[in-house]
């Protein structure tokens, strides 16, 4: 029997006006916006709906904003009768997946990811870290490149293993610059610097991980209502203590997204619904396997299309 997975995007997908059809005044999902505002102590909802984009993009704002949008969309889908068999999220999106599965309460998750963003922002001073997308080079060759540069004193490592031919690297600014040049020499088609505020999913994030562990120790973790595929292992996790530890490791470990999608395919998932703005994950999933059904829900129109499509699912 075909199975459904909900997938949740990470940083970079945020945009002013996001999830307005779900969290706007009088909407069912407004309860998520109101809870986030209460827990964070500022008007996150206004920032989500009106911007400015520059402020929304700050990591400690983007993270709770994307969580709020994803949670509201997830609730709308479930209310319409569409329920997942599995969930997964890209980086920050893993927290939204855990909310969907009932592992974390929404309010606890909103406060945690806001602090996570602050810790990440503090870990490496602006300008000292960087990330870049490497296109057209296989993972083993790129791993050799990054290991050689790291051993020479400029830390850099694979950070997002997104899909065939697309891997993001992360580390010190000099390490990333050197790795981009070396990757091109090794046969990469392109090396594209990313406009990010820090070297996420690299060893430079370990100070943030130590602070995050303290925050997570104060949060209740429950057994999931359905399995969540984690970034660190690309496997289902069901034990609360394991999921907590994996969230800590996630800060300085690669996001194994391609492997996570392939795990879900092996588990019988043939229908993916991306819950959140942008459609980045939808594009990655299609590059991994073009035979599956991929839908995205980011507004009322795309929700209606998903509900209509689901009527034909057995």
Topology:
Elements: E1 3-8, H1 20-23, H2 30-40, H3 44-50, H4 53-57, H5 59-79, E2 86-89, H6 93-100, H7 106-123, E3 129-135, H8 139-151, E4 156-163, E5 166-172, H9 173-185, E6 190-193, H10 206-217, E7 228-229, E8 236-237, H11 240-250, H12 257-266, E9 269-275, H13 280-288, E10 293-297, H14 300-310
Parallel strand pairs: 1-2, 1-9, 2-7, 9-10
Antiparallel strand pairs: 3-5, 3-6, 4-5, 7-8
Helix pairs in contact: 2-5, 2-7, 5-6, 5-7, 7-10, 8-9, 10-11
Give a written overview of the molecule.
The chain is α/β, with parallel strands linked by helices. The chain has two domains: 3-123 and 204-310, Malonyl-Coenzyme A Acyl Carrier Protein, domain 2 (3-Layer(aba) Sandwich); 129-196, Malonyl-CoA ACP transacylase, ACP-binding (Alpha-Beta Plaits, 2-Layer Sandwich), CATH 3.30.70. Helix content is 49%, strand content 17%. It has helices at 20-23, 30-40, 44-50, 53-57, 59-79, 93-100, 106-123, 139-151, 173-185, 206-217, 240-250, 257-266, 280-288, 300-310, and strands at residues 3-8, 86-89, 129-135, 156-163, 166-172, 190-193, 228-229, 236-237, 269-275, 293-297. The strands form two sheets. The protein has a six-stranded mixed beta sheet with strand order 8-7-2-1-9-10, with helices on both faces. A four-stranded antiparallel beta sheet has the order 4-5-3-6. The longest helix is centred in the first third of the chain and has 21 residues, at 59-79. It is globular and about 55 Å long. It starts with a strand and ends with a helix.
């Amino acid at each position: 029997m075909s199975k459904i997975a909900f997938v949740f995007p990470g940083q970079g997908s945020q945009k002013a006006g996001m999830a307005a059809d779900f969290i706007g005044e009088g909407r069912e999902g407004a309860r998520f916006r109101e809870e986030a505002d209460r827990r964070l102590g500022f008007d996150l909802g206004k920032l989500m709906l009106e911007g400015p984009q520059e402020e929304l993009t700050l990591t400690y704002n983007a993270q709770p904003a994307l969580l709020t949008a994803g949670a509201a969309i997830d609730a709308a889908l479930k209310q319409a009768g569409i329920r997942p068999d599995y969930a997964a999220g890209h980086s920050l999106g893993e927290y939204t997946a855990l909310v969907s599965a009932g592992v974390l309460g929404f309010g606890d998750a909103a406060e945690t990811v806001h602090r996570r963003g602050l810790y990440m922002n503090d870990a490496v001073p602006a300008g000292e870290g960087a990330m870049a997308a490497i296109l057209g080079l296989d993972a083993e060759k790129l791993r050799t490149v990054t290991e050689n540069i790291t051993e020479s004193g400029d830390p850099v490592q694979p950070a997002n293993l997104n899909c065939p031919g697309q891997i993001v690297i992360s580390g010190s600014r000099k390490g990333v610059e050197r790795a981009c040049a070396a990757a091109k020499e090794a046969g990469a088609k392109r090396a594209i610097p990313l406009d990010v505020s820090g070297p996420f999913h690299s060893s430079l994030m370990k100070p943030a991980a130590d602070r995050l562990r303290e925050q997570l120790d104060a949060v209740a973790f429950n057994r999931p209502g359905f399995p969540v595929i984690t970034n660190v292992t690309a496997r289902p996790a069901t034990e609360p203590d394991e999921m907590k530890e994996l969230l800590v490791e996630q800060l300085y470990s690669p996001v194994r997204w391609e492997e996570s999608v392939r795990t879900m395919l092996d588990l019988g998932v043939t229908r993916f619904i991306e819950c959140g703005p942008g459609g980045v994950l939808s594009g990655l999933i299609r590059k991994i396997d073009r035979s599956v059904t991929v839908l995205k829900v980011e507004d009322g129109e795309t929700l209606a299309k998903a509900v209509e499509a689901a009527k034909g699912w057995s």
